[in-house]
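Can't attach files on this board, so I'm pasting raw text. These are the components:
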Amino acid sequence: MAAQSGLPLAYPHGRPRVGRVRGYFRQFHKEDVVMGYLFLLIPMAIFILFFFVAMVFDLWISIQQWAIIDTPKFVGSTNYNYIFNIDPVFWIAVKNSIEYALVVVPLQTLLAFTLAVIVNQNIRGKKFFRTAFYFPSVTSSVAITLLFMWLFNNNGLVNYVLSLVHLGPIGPFGTVGFLTDPNLALKSIIGLNTWTTSGTYMIIFLAALQDVPRDMYEAAAIDGANAWQAIRKITIPLIRPATFLIVATGLIGAIQMFDQAFVMSQGNPGSPDNSTLTMVLYIYGTGIQGNQYGRAAAASFVMFCIIFVATLLVRRLIREEAAF
Amino acid sequence: MRKRIALVNVLVALAMVASFMALKSAKVSASVSHSKTVVTLDGWASTPAEPKDLKKVLNAFQKKNPNIQVQYNVVNGDFESQMKAAFAAGRGPDVLYADEGWAQDFERTGRFQALNKYAAKDKSFHQGDFYPGLVKGFTVGKKIYGFPKDYSTLALWYNTKIMKALHIKHPPTDVNSFSRVACAIRRYEVKHHHNKVYGAGLPNDLARWQPILQAFGGHVMNAAQTKPEINSSPGVKAIRWWTGLVHKGCAAEPSQVGAGWSGQEFGQGNAAMVFEGPWLLPGMQTTWKSIHWRIAPLPTGPKGNGNLAFSVAYAMNKNSHVKSAAWKLISYLTGRVGEAKWVKLFQVLPARRSIKPPKGDGAFVRGAAYAEPWSFKPGFFNPGGPNTTIGNDLDKVALHGMSAKAMAKDVANSIKIWLKNG
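---
Top answer:
Structure tokens for the assembled complex are below.
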């Protein structure tokens, strides 16, 4: 292959012996192998214990009735039956989480990409903009949510500004209930989180953008491509791995959204009217607060399945478009 | 050479982990190796003063019982979750604080020791001295799982400056005069362009609305908590009264004025009257000093008084190895001597009628006589459970066009689902 395409051989002294697994270690010193495993030991033990074992344990808890301070009682599919058919809010939580993810992921990916393209230009003060766009991501989400609540509450600055420009009265009390109107509360969190998370993803996009070889753009320019064509035909295809990473982690993070909804509805989780009840908030409320670990574990397993399928879909979607 | 150094590093790291573990177990064994009986006691600190004051009471106990040593441990963070984790691991303390809100989780799973026998045998304990409603909060069937160390009830907090401006000499004493005063205040404030000042602050919260429901003669459930009773004429009337004031704009929910709870609403000057407990006091003395206020008993309804008691008890671990010493501690802390000392130091309301409450708390003390316990079977506070449904529905009736009858039906339905499925 290599010789046919005229490129230099990757291994001028012959390939290392990696063909058979059994012979794989022969190329290393024995001490290296021992060291490698020693270094891996602790992270692997933590991973197996807190992720793999925990996952299997979750599946086991989901078929028990258990308040953790009593002895677990096997109940079969009762917990799944309860959350699917009886619980009045489980499907609301699923719907909220999915609706949230479907809006947030495209929005934040697009925003992050746009920001990355902007700060990748040679514009004046680009370092300032990079810092400014990234800033929300390094701030505590609880602190940001509290600030957001002050700005957007019925008595807050945003409603004050709206009243100055005579956009109010809109709501029932002359203000917009960003946080108190069941139709707006989740959308407010969507706005907040799109803004805070896009900074992190901007950094990943930026790193990917800087890996795109300059000469490709130069060649495209010589061929007469405009800026938009360059982005569509060169940038987007070449940063596909970064896009996959961002969409996949963004999706997982969105389905797992908890802290903002938790802080915003303190005292009455999911308020107003269960509109901010996400799946993790449901799991927290049922398990940690409500002491019904079986049901919470069943809901966690359902959430795991949703995330797993969604990630597979994203993988397939972004991979299949790869032809360029 | 480099590899050897790396290997040494890994070994040193492992040795450090091992030595930390050894140190920790050494610490535990050192504290147990006394000839005295050691009783462990876990509690939270509602204020930094609480552990200091409790230590003084514990010292007095140890002086009286020289062969018992109390190992008092202040748990920071979520006390309930940490106790659940400790009990699940079989490491629960001998004696612990138990809040009415979650005590039933432990009582109904057999993790607390029933105290009836201990109390009956202990001649100096005088069980009949407690307010019955407070002990009821820690009773399942006939078994008593905790004796209250103190409690809080609700009272009417009112803004004296606003009352004076309207020439109102006395705070309202019943629900009708309360409505009149609240609406009069709102009209007055709107006239003076104080659009963010309401007559009252009424949150969508069972923990504030229940006393009114009781005063109207209604209940969320029957006393045994086996069936809903909210879907009744007093229930619907109590819903209408509460939501009607918000609907008319005489009162506001805290979120309408950007507050997290009605205490904040009152402190910020957005509500002239609220139903709150003594926990609002520190806030009024520090953050909201500019508000002039007084407290009065909650307004009465057509069927008399209503109030809620939020109490914390001392409970005993069923698996404790030192039960008789643990009872001695509980008996002292909730007894006439220990509780009197505690009340005097920490300025809380005594759960015993024979102990004099701190000055100025009359309105709260009066509530204890008729207060219902804030205690529910497990699962009441779950997402989609009765408590959340009541909160959501109060808001819907007040501001989003739901009818009071529909709410009563909806809440009764959620109670039925909860009771049937645990």
